[in-house]
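Let us work through a complete example step by step.
Step 1: write down the sequence.
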Amino acid sequence: MSSPVSLCRDNDIGVIRIHYPPVNALGQGVREGLQRCLQEALADDQIKAVIVTGEGKTFPAGADIREFGKPPQPPALPDVINEYEASSKPVIAAIHGTALGGGLEVALGCDYRVALDSARLGLPEVKLGLLPGAGGTQRLPRLVGIEAALDMIVGGNPVKAAAAKALGLVDEVVSGDLLEGALAFARNVIDEKAPLRRLCDLPIPGDSGADVFARFEQSIARRQRGFKAPFHCIKAVQAAAELPFEQGLQRERELFVELLLSPESAAQRHVFFAEREVAKVPGLDKDTPRRDINTVAVIGAGTMGGGIAMNFANAGIPVKMLEVKQEALEKGLAVIRRNYENTAKKGRITAEQVEQRMALIQPTLSYDELGDVDLVIEAVFENMDVKKAVFSELDRVCKPGAILATNTSTLDVDRIASFTQRPQDVMGMHFFSPANVMKLLENVRGEKTADDVIATVMDLSRRIGKVGVLVGVCHGFVGNRMLHKRQAEAIKLVNEGASPQQVDKVLFDLGFPMGPFAMSDLAGMDVGYRIREELRKEDPANAPARNWTDELVEAGRLGQKTQAGVFDYKEGDRTPVPSPDVDGIIEQYRSDNGITPRAISDQEILERCMYVMVNEGAKILEEGIAARPLDVDVIWIYGYGFPVYRGGVMFWADQVGVKKIHDKISEIYQQTGDPVWKPSERLAELAELGKGFNR
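Step 2: predict the structure and record it as tokens.
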């Protein structure tokens, strides 16, 4: 097999080319090739300068993920970069596509950097719970200053070529032919006898005092709560400011290894790979044909319907939005416009883009205007009778082959499909609120859903910027089914003596953005109430018993929108405040049901709220509702705010210990006899074998 790196000569300039599709990742062969080709160039007396570039679509875009988890093979990337930096001849990095992670670190080991105007450069390691470990935290501050380096390294977001030049990261931006531009730059370096510019020898420009780092750490403290890597990144950059270069490199390596071995990084890397894996549906042939989706319709112009419509407009897909009343339609369009205009005020889109996207949303009051759409998504009330009326109409008006989707969060997709003469075309597309923001799309395959419909919807998820996860039919599917078990347990804990704020604090401290009761207030207490009432009507044997949260709703305490739910809220302030009125309702509920409250520990709250979800997740896997533990993890990460640095519910269970969780669940089941606590067969089997869900 030929080497993925080659050296050729253009007169007196050596050109090192990396050819390792698809992204020229810095695998062992590439590292060895870079090292060998540089040595050959230095040994060739006719070569006066060296260019290193990537073939295909990109400069090296980072480490080779195929090597993750395997023993490292020499040469190590830091050693290769050090050789480039020590070169006796000027080295110019010619960058196109993306120079990310180790790719940018290679470029920083060069004397100069030339970038195509469309290129992007960044150090995204923090998003894997790591830091740049090949000198990036030491070299970048010497080139762009402390604050810019902290922004790039801690934020992990790439910058465009023009911005990189403004920072001093790139020396020249070229349009047209990159190699031609890089060769011209290199000849100027030779002709002008420009000095070697080794970043290790440069002083750090601007302010590098300790207060810079303290201020930056304070600025990210809330946003990065629970994450380890951002704060280690700050420490590494501070080492660049306070230590000689070689000692700084050593400190960077120490911090890198500490992160690499941390559970936080393991969790973030799990999420990274899981997000990519969920798009691959087990048992679905990758060559399954897809249906064309060029026009879409959304039934309902409320908060959810409007948010769904925005996803398609954002992707440039025309969307018809149907309502039964003109007033509701106009209100929905006004909300969409306001959302877009607020985004424009933040500089994320232009005023022209606002109008372009609004023009793609066509309002209508008539089902008859939906005859030409390729996909229709209903977003109406969680009521089976309403769903029946909608799908009966869609079956009448929609063309053959149109996909009919429901946004239901809990109801039976197979029953909804039965309201049509085309169940093979019906599928669930469960968006999460706010639908234009939340990344998760829980795609629900019905018993009769056709494979090409599944393949189309999974591909469409990516097209509109969502992380699509395929699940099966049951009440609540995956996310809400587990959530309802946790919510029921949280309510029981309050019944027994805990306060809502104590329960919320335990889950917040675990890493959730808010606890279960604050979340109910945010979503609207009436949402859960309607779901429970519908279940009590449709399936009374499996419906939850009435509890004090039902009383809150019936008393008009609907959450933040009424400034009163489980907690009280002040005008314009979303901070939950314990409510004496709610305390009174809870006390009365306990009294009416003969409950003597007891002190409940934070540990008991954690175990009961989390272990019940683990057990339900195991049952979901047993039943085939979710295909893999990683599917469950991705749903909870992107749909419910489960902390990324804990990797998802099932990954977290592995970290705690499946046997430990199983034994506690068994103990609770023996004490209570509650069927929800009967250990799942999957959990029992893994515990007996000493295995975890993901290993």
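Step 3: interpret the result. The mean pLDDT is 95.
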